[in-house]
Protein backbone atom coordinates (compact mmCIF):
# COMPACT_ATOMS: atom_id res chain seq x y z
CA UNK A 1 0.00 0.00 0.00
CA UNK A 2 1.56 3.32 -1.08
CA UNK A 3 1.22 6.62 0.79
CA UNK A 4 -1.79 7.73 -1.24
CA UNK A 5 -3.67 4.49 -0.60
CA UNK A 6 -2.71 4.62 3.09
CA UNK A 7 -4.12 8.15 3.39
CA UNK A 8 -7.33 6.98 1.73
CA UNK A 9 -7.60 4.07 4.17
CA UNK A 10 -6.85 6.38 7.12
CA UNK A 11 -9.68 8.67 5.97
CA UNK A 12 -12.08 5.72 5.79
CA UNK A 13 -11.01 4.58 9.26
CA UNK A 14 -11.57 8.09 10.67
CA UNK A 15 -15.10 8.20 9.25
CA UNK A 16 -15.87 4.75 10.66
CA UNK A 17 -14.46 5.72 14.07
CA UNK A 18 -16.62 8.88 14.16
CA UNK A 19 -19.66 6.85 13.12
CA UNK A 20 -19.03 4.33 15.90
CA UNK A 21 -18.61 7.07 18.52
CA UNK A 22 -21.83 8.75 17.36
CA UNK A 23 -23.72 5.44 17.53
CA UNK A 24 -22.44 4.86 21.04
CA UNK A 25 -23.50 8.39 22.06
CA UNK A 26 -26.96 7.88 20.55
CA UNK A 27 -27.41 4.58 22.38
CA UNK A 28 -26.30 6.05 25.71
CA UNK A 29 -28.62 9.05 25.41
CA UNK A 30 -31.53 6.81 24.45
CA UNK A 31 -30.95 4.60 27.51
CA UNK A 32 -30.72 7.66 29.78
CA UNK A 33 -34.01 9.01 28.41
CA UNK A 34 -35.68 5.61 28.88
CA UNK A 35 -34.42 5.31 32.49
CA UNK A 36 -35.73 8.79 33.27
CA UNK A 37 -39.10 8.00 31.70
CA UNK A 38 -39.46 4.82 33.79
CA UNK A 39 -39.50 7.00 36.91
CA UNK A 40 -42.83 8.47 35.80
CA UNK A 41 -45.85 6.22 36.41
CA UNK A 42 -47.76 5.44 33.22
CA UNK A 43 -50.51 7.97 32.56
CA UNK A 44 -49.47 10.29 35.39
CA UNK A 45 -50.33 13.93 34.57
CA UNK A 46 -47.81 16.76 34.87
CA UNK A 47 -47.40 17.97 38.47
CA UNK A 48 -45.89 21.43 38.63
CA UNK A 49 -42.94 23.18 36.97
CA UNK A 50 -40.30 20.74 38.24
CA UNK A 51 -42.12 17.77 36.69
CA UNK A 52 -42.52 19.67 33.43
CA UNK A 53 -38.79 20.46 33.31
CA UNK A 54 -37.97 16.80 34.05
CA UNK A 55 -40.10 15.67 31.13
CA UNK A 56 -38.53 18.31 28.91
CA UNK A 57 -35.07 16.93 29.76
CA UNK A 58 -36.27 13.49 28.65
CA UNK A 59 -37.37 14.95 25.34
CA UNK A 60 -34.08 16.81 24.93
CA UNK A 61 -32.09 13.63 25.50
CA UNK A 62 -34.16 11.80 22.89
CA UNK A 63 -33.61 14.67 20.42
CA UNK A 64 -29.87 14.51 21.03
CA UNK A 65 -29.98 10.73 20.61
CA UNK A 66 -31.63 11.15 17.20
CA UNK A 67 -29.07 13.81 16.22
CA UNK A 68 -26.22 11.46 17.16
CA UNK A 69 -27.82 8.64 15.16
CA UNK A 70 -28.07 10.93 12.14
CA UNK A 71 -24.40 11.87 12.59
CA UNK A 72 -23.45 8.19 12.71
CA UNK A 73 -25.35 7.55 9.47
CA UNK A 74 -23.64 10.54 7.85
CA UNK A 75 -20.11 9.37 8.68
CA UNK A 76 -20.91 5.78 7.75
CA UNK A 77 -22.11 6.99 4.35
CA UNK A 78 -18.91 9.03 3.94
CA UNK A 79 -16.81 5.97 4.76
CA UNK A 80 -18.78 3.81 2.34
CA UNK A 81 -18.46 6.38 -0.45
CA UNK A 82 -14.70 6.67 0.07
CA UNK A 83 -14.35 2.89 0.14
CA UNK A 84 -16.40 2.43 -3.05
CA UNK A 85 -14.58 5.20 -4.91
CA UNK A 86 -12.49 3.43 -7.54
CA UNK A 87 -11.57 6.60 -9.45
CA UNK A 88 -7.86 6.83 -10.22
CA UNK A 89 -6.43 10.01 -8.72
CA UNK A 90 -3.52 11.86 -10.31
CA UNK A 91 -2.09 12.09 -6.79
CA UNK A 92 -1.64 8.32 -6.69
CA UNK A 93 2.02 7.51 -7.47
CA UNK A 94 0.76 4.38 -9.23
CA UNK A 95 -1.72 6.35 -11.35
CA UNK A 96 0.11 5.71 -14.63
CA UNK A 97 0.24 1.96 -14.02
CA UNK A 98 -3.42 1.85 -12.98
CA UNK A 99 -4.52 3.95 -15.95
CA UNK A 100 -2.51 1.75 -18.31
CA UNK A 101 -4.23 -1.32 -16.88
CA UNK A 102 -7.63 0.37 -17.24
CA UNK A 103 -6.85 1.36 -20.83
CA UNK A 104 -5.90 -2.22 -21.71
CA UNK A 105 -9.20 -3.46 -20.27
CA UNK A 106 -11.22 -0.86 -22.19
CA UNK A 107 -9.47 -1.64 -25.46
CA UNK A 108 -9.95 -5.37 -24.94
CA UNK A 109 -13.65 -4.80 -24.25
CA UNK A 110 -13.97 -2.64 -27.39
CA UNK A 111 -12.44 -5.34 -29.57
CA UNK A 112 -14.57 -8.05 -27.97
CA UNK A 113 -17.82 -6.11 -28.46
CA UNK A 114 -17.01 -5.49 -32.12
CA UNK A 115 -16.15 -9.15 -32.68
CA UNK A 116 -19.36 -10.34 -31.00
CA UNK A 117 -21.49 -7.96 -33.07
CA UNK A 118 -19.79 -9.09 -36.30
CA UNK A 119 -20.27 -12.76 -35.35
CA UNK A 120 -23.96 -12.20 -34.54
CA UNK A 121 -24.59 -10.43 -37.86
CA UNK A 122 -23.06 -13.38 -39.69
CA UNK A 123 -24.60 -16.30 -37.76
CA UNK A 124 -27.63 -14.82 -35.97
CA UNK A 125 -26.33 -16.09 -32.62
CA UNK A 126 -23.43 -15.55 -30.23
CA UNK A 127 -22.92 -19.28 -29.60
CA UNK A 128 -19.50 -20.37 -30.77
CA UNK A 129 -18.03 -16.86 -30.72
CA UNK A 130 -14.44 -16.83 -29.44
CA UNK A 131 -13.85 -15.18 -26.08
CA UNK A 132 -17.28 -15.75 -24.47
CA UNK A 133 -18.87 -18.61 -22.57
CA UNK A 134 -22.02 -20.47 -23.64
CA UNK A 135 -23.87 -18.86 -20.69
CA UNK A 136 -22.96 -15.35 -21.80
CA UNK A 137 -23.75 -16.20 -25.42
CA UNK A 138 -27.22 -17.40 -24.41
CA UNK A 139 -27.84 -14.22 -22.39
CA UNK A 140 -26.75 -11.98 -25.27
CA UNK A 141 -28.96 -13.87 -27.73
CA UNK A 142 -31.90 -13.50 -25.36
CA UNK A 143 -31.25 -9.76 -24.90
CA UNK A 144 -31.39 -9.20 -28.66
CA UNK A 145 -34.49 -11.35 -29.21
CA UNK A 146 -36.42 -9.83 -26.29
CA UNK A 147 -35.15 -6.29 -26.79
CA UNK A 148 -36.72 -3.43 -28.78
CA UNK A 149 -37.19 -4.04 -32.53
CA UNK A 150 -34.34 -1.68 -33.43
CA UNK A 151 -31.84 -3.76 -31.44
CA UNK A 152 -30.25 -6.14 -33.96
CA UNK A 153 -26.85 -6.80 -32.33
CA UNK A 154 -25.79 -7.60 -28.75
CA UNK A 155 -23.96 -4.30 -28.23
CA UNK A 156 -25.68 -1.12 -29.41
CA UNK A 157 -23.70 1.60 -31.15
CA UNK A 158 -23.91 3.87 -28.10
CA UNK A 159 -22.16 1.22 -25.98
CA UNK A 160 -19.25 1.13 -28.41
CA UNK A 161 -19.25 4.94 -28.67
CA UNK A 162 -19.27 5.46 -24.89
CA UNK A 163 -16.49 2.93 -24.39
CA UNK A 164 -14.46 4.55 -27.16
CA UNK A 165 -14.86 7.99 -25.55
CA UNK A 166 -13.62 6.56 -22.26
CA UNK A 167 -10.60 5.09 -24.09
CA UNK A 168 -9.72 8.54 -25.48
CA UNK A 169 -10.23 10.16 -22.06
CA UNK A 170 -7.89 7.67 -20.36
CA UNK A 171 -5.34 8.05 -23.17
CA UNK A 172 -5.36 11.83 -22.69
CA UNK A 173 -4.87 11.50 -18.93
CA UNK A 174 -2.02 9.07 -19.47
CA UNK A 175 -0.39 11.46 -21.91
CA UNK A 176 -0.59 14.42 -19.51
CA UNK A 177 0.60 12.45 -16.48
CA UNK A 178 3.50 10.93 -18.39
CA UNK A 179 4.57 14.30 -19.78
CA UNK A 180 4.37 15.88 -16.33
CA UNK A 181 6.60 13.23 -14.77
CA UNK A 182 9.08 13.29 -17.62
CA UNK A 183 9.48 17.07 -17.54
CA UNK A 184 11.11 16.95 -14.13
CA UNK A 185 9.76 20.19 -12.66
CA UNK A 186 12.09 22.22 -10.47
CA UNK A 187 11.38 24.95 -7.95
CA UNK A 188 12.67 28.48 -7.52
CA UNK A 189 13.07 31.16 -4.89
CA UNK A 190 11.53 34.62 -4.73
CA UNK A 191 11.74 37.57 -2.41
CA UNK A 192 9.97 36.33 0.72
CA UNK A 193 9.74 32.64 0.01
CA UNK A 194 10.25 29.72 -2.35
CA UNK A 195 8.38 27.42 -4.71
CA UNK A 196 8.85 23.65 -4.74
CA UNK A 197 7.62 21.06 -7.22
CA UNK A 198 6.75 18.09 -5.01
CA UNK A 199 6.60 15.24 -7.52
CA UNK A 200 5.97 12.63 -4.83
CA UNK A 201 2.74 14.34 -3.72
CA UNK A 202 1.94 15.78 -7.16
CA UNK A 203 1.79 19.30 -5.74
CA UNK A 204 3.22 22.70 -6.65
CA UNK A 205 3.90 24.28 -3.26
CA UNK A 206 4.51 27.91 -2.35
CA UNK A 207 6.26 28.57 0.98
CA UNK A 208 6.26 32.09 2.42
CA UNK A 209 8.66 33.36 5.08
CA UNK A 210 5.73 35.29 6.58
CA UNK A 211 1.95 35.17 6.21
CA UNK A 212 1.27 36.71 2.77
CA UNK A 213 -1.04 39.74 2.59
CA UNK A 214 -4.72 39.36 1.76
CA UNK A 215 -4.33 40.39 -1.89
CA UNK A 216 -1.66 37.72 -2.43
CA UNK A 217 -3.81 35.03 -0.77
CA UNK A 218 -6.74 36.06 -2.95
CA UNK A 219 -4.62 35.77 -6.09
CA UNK A 220 -3.30 32.38 -5.02
CA UNK A 221 -6.87 31.12 -4.59
CA UNK A 222 -7.71 32.49 -8.03
CA UNK A 223 -4.98 30.26 -9.48
CA UNK A 224 -6.31 27.19 -7.67
CA UNK A 225 -3.94 27.21 -4.68
CA UNK A 226 -5.23 26.22 -1.24
CA UNK A 227 -3.57 26.51 2.16
CA UNK A 228 -2.36 23.14 3.47
CA UNK A 229 -1.63 23.41 7.18
CA UNK A 230 -0.03 19.95 7.21
CA UNK A 231 2.53 21.11 4.62
CA UNK A 232 2.87 24.71 5.79
CA UNK A 233 2.40 25.78 2.18
CA UNK A 234 -0.05 27.03 -0.39
CA UNK A 235 -0.40 24.29 -2.97
CA UNK A 236 -2.23 22.98 -6.00
CA UNK A 237 -1.86 19.93 -8.22
CA UNK A 238 1.46 19.83 -10.02
Commentary on this structure:
It is a single chain. The chain has helices spanning 3-38, 48-84, 95-123, 134-146, 157-183, 214-222, and strands at 188-190, 193-198, 203-208, 226-228, 233-237. By secondary structure, it is an alpha+beta fold. β2 (193-198) and β3 (203-208) form a beta hairpin. The mean pLDDT is 90.
Biggest sheet: strand arrangement: 1-2-3-5-4
Number of strands: 5
Provide a count of the helices.
6
Listing every helix as H and every strand as E from the N terminus to the C terminus, the arrangement reads HHHHHEEEHEE
Instruction: Write down the Rg.
Output: 30 Å
Question: Runs with pLDDT <50, length 5+?
Answer: none
What is the mean pLDDT? 90
Q: Note the beta-strand portion.
A: 5-15%
Strand pairing plus helix content: what structural class?
A: alpha+beta
Main beta sheet strand tally, sense and closure: 5 strands, antiparallel
**Approximate helicity band:** 55-70%
Report the span from N to C terminus: 22 Å
Global morphology: flat
Question: What are the SSEs and their pairings?
Answer:
Elements: H1 3-38, H2 48-84, H3 95-123, H4 134-146, H5 157-183, E1 188-190, E2 193-198, E3 203-208, H6 214-222, E4 226-228, E5 233-237
Amino acid sequence: MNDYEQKKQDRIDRYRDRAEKARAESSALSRQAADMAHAIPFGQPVHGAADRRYRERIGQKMDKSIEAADKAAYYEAKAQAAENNTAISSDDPEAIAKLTEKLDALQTAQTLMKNINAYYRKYGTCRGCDGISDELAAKLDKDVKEGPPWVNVPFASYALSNNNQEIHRVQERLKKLTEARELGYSGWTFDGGRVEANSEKNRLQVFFDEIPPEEVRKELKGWGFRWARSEGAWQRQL
